[in-house]
User: Fold this.
Amino acid sequence: MSVTTAVEQTENNAPLQILAPDGTVVRPDLMPNLSDDELRELMRKMVFTRVWDQRAISLNRQGRLGFYAPVAGQEASMIGSEGALSKEDFILPSYRDIPQMVWHGFPMHQAFLYSRGHIEGGRIPEGVNVLMPQIIIAAQCTQATGVAMGYKLRGEKRVAINYFGDGATSQGDFYEGMNYAGVYKLPVIFFSQNNGYAISLPFEKQTASENIAVKAVAAGIASERIDGMDIMAVYYAVLKAKERGVNGEGATLIEAMTYRYGPHTMAGDDPTRYRTGEEQSEWELRDPLIRFRKFLEAKGLWNEKDEEAVIEEAKKAVADAIKKADEAPKMKVSELIDCMFETLPPSLEEQKAEYLAKESK
Amino acid sequence: MAQMTMVQAITDAMRVELKRDETVLVFGEDVGKNGGVFRATEGLQSEFGEQRVFDTPLAESGIGGLAVGLSINGFRPVAEIQFFGFVFETFDAIASQATRMRYRSGGRFHSPVTFRSPFGGGVKTPELHADSLEGLMLQTPGLKVVIPSNPYDAKGLLISAIRDNDPVVFLEHMKLYRSFRQEVPEGDYAIPLGKANVVKEGTDVTIITYGAMVHTSLKAAEEIEKARGAKVEVIDLRTISPLDIDTIVESVKKTNRAIVVQEAQKTSGVAAEIITQINERAILHLEAPVLRITAPDTVYPFAQAEDVWLPDVKRVVDGLTQVLDF
Assistant:
């Protein structure tokens, strides 16, 4: 099966699945061609990310992190999609997409500094092709068209991927971005992680559309609706979308059906006000880690020892990163002023002097 | 040197930059084959090809996002907003995205976009075409705002704007596009951003203004000089952000009297900012309160009321008289 159009997809509204929740392969014909080591690496990253997320939540509760949007439940969507890209591809993330950034090369201690609202948290190292997480929920959809047009103009075989939630698809920029990408046939992947809720608003109150994937039809671009709890389906769809992009066939909208187990963010959101425990339990049966673990165990590629080793590795990495973040000197207003223009105009030079005086006390 | 209208000078500036730097791209609604609704991009697509000069779908937020994305990928986009009343559709891209890029990325990326747009009253456009929204831009940190008043400045300032590594909003007054011609050098020259121009020297009162109001102010200065012999200094700001406060203060210290003339509505705009800064820096040099001559705080009027709504020579003369007689 090649990437389907949304019209074909709607005839059978079931999202594409390669691994069933019990880890068995239901679409061997679509199984990505990955080595044993590559398969294990995807599992390592998912387990690592789950532990990191648990630690981040705990650090947030202790007041040692700032803004944080939990990711548990969405690991397959996040890691499967990033895993199908190469480091040359450009990620335009949304606020929850810190794992893709880090697996793409952004240092973890800087992600913690970002969470704490420190300028160092945004200092993207040379060679790491990411933007900082977008807050305006669909702005990255239009920006991705510009990054992708740059690749197309230079004849580079690279794609831009932008991540957003189901809520962002209600915003005009989502449509404007897809429309531009369609008109100019740009190598863009619009990756929607449909976790069913935009903060508290359920999908059926977000849109009367049957699903997100059909929205690609209006923009004349390809789309795919996939099981976002199935890392193989995610990997497959993103790889196909990337091929499409670099072969000059244009953009793809991917709708990954997924779920966040935790709150929207740690800043006071209480999901029990708008979701039931039964619903969460149902989704947990489709958990991306359990599913992929079962698949790997059946092939003899994963065992308890592997799992424990990654858990230890992740705990240590998080501890080291937090320590490193703690060591960063406090951010200064003078540094902020320095970032407003390439060369400061006299008025800002004056204002900087005021703050330098305060900061030297 | 050639005689050019302001719109021709603007086209010429883009031509110079498209030729000089292959990362410069020009795009917007109808800018390709049609050459723009004011013909500001006339001939550029046939000269530089559809990859360098191209039409966009009619969606301003998309234009802004495209420009921001291209700018972080090594290009210098010159994006046209067809009329400045449409800027709200792309205000997020300008004010929240392009201006924050250097800060958000800790200096890794910057957003060297030039957003060009026609604006300004007196040409009887439909509503939401002429609006003077430069005050909103002025209040946006990280943004440069350029408003030329003549063909020579327009070319030199636009070249500087395109070469600038910060986002620039470049506002072209519609009434000035074809109102007169001026000698404009061929090829390459740049006028620095953030530097005002003293277009007429005087000793008794200063007019601080920009855009089309430079011409209204010069006429008013001439009238008052004839009527009472007072010598008027006129400052054309050229860029309202960064503001060349040194030139303003120097002039006020010499003349001890000033008025600020702007086409935009009264409250919290460019004039308010300038008067505040004069108070902060030169209040003891003042012999009279600094007045502002502006439009009233209404939405931009329909065409029937436009001529009365806009500041005119008489209102500037009245303002000058008031501060001279204080």
The mean pLDDT of chain B is 97. The interface with chain A takes residues 25, 51, 56-57, 59, 61-62, 64-75, 77, 92-93, 96-97, 102-110, 141-142, 144, 164-166, 194, 242-243, 245-246 of chain B (CB under 8 Å).
